[in-house]
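Dear Dr. H.,

I hope your travels went smoothly. While you were away I took the liberty of generating a structure for the chain from your last submission, since the lab meeting agenda had it listed for discussion. I wanted you to have the full record in hand beforehand rather than looking at slides cold. The sequence, exactly as received, is reproduced here:
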Amino acid sequence: MSGFKPYLSAIEAPSLAEVQALPGLVLLEFGTEWCGHCRAAQPLIAQALADRPSWRHLKVEDGPGRALGRHYRVRLWPTLVVLRDGQEVGRLVRPATVQDVQAVLTD
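The corresponding predicted structure, in token form, is as follows:
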């Protein structure tokens, strides 16, 4: 899939303190580059965010022992966690439609 933006590795991923300090609206996307569900969700997420320039989108690679994913209790990929000023205000697991993603992105 061309244009597939890689997930931040465990080394690159922000800490929980850094995520909680982020101001404004943030979409944390937990998944992996090789996950078929994650790849299928990419155009849905991109389309939902296209008209929302105020949103920050962080793709975080998840897996066993990854602290950030464990904090947010990620079990399936992709899991989208919506933050407002560092606090979780929404979540979506394995989005199937653009409308699913748009519904969780409350401005």
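Two observations you may find useful: The mean pLDDT is 94. The radius of gyration is 13 Å.

With kind regards,
E. W.
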